[in-house]
Write a structure and sequence with these properties.
Elements lengths: L10 H6 L1 H8 L2 E6 L4 E6 L3 H10 L4 H15 L6 H6 L7 H6 L2 H14 L5 H9 L1
Antiparallel strand pairs: 1-2
Helix pairs in contact: 3-4, 4-7
Length: 131
């Protein structure tokens, strides 16, 4: 019996994976948010959003939290609704995340976004949340 690592990929096998790869890029999941008393749909944003979020992270905790807020803002379409943004009178649209979620919830949703986007494994996120 051959080990999975011994399998040699072919062109046809890679082409057959196309649908799986596209589905993985568009994954979404509902998350219950305690402070809101309901669920939001979190969708993996385009990779460029992940790259921008990483570029935002500086040496301060504030930059790290803002980076997480940016990820969450871009992953939850409801948070980008113009009526919601106007109701909360935000200057920077990303600020809506801070107005709606606790800092712990921001981190939790950002971690879910990372998993959905394929940038971390679920078990690594669970370990990080515990710490």
């Amino acid at each position: 019996m051959a080990n999975k690592r011994d399998v040699k990929l072919t062109l046809s096998a890679l082409i057959a994976k196309k649908a799986d790869k596209e589905a993985a890029r568009n994954r979404s999941e509902d998350m219950y948010i305690e402070s809101l008393g309901g669920s939001i749909t979190v969708t993996a944003p385009h990779r460029s959003i992940f790259y921008k979020a990483v570029d935002m992270v500086g040496d301060t905790l504030e930059s790290q939290v803002y980076s997480n807020m940016f990820l969450v803002y871009n992953a939850v379409s409801l948070f980008r609704n113009q009526e919601l943004l106007e109701a909360y009178e935000v200057v920077d649209n990303v600020e809506i995340v801070d107005r709606l979620l606790t800092v712990a919830e921001i981190k939790e949703v950002a971690n879910k976004v990372m998993v959905l986007g394929g940038f971390s494994k679920p078990e690594e996120v669970q370990e990080e949340i515990k710490n």
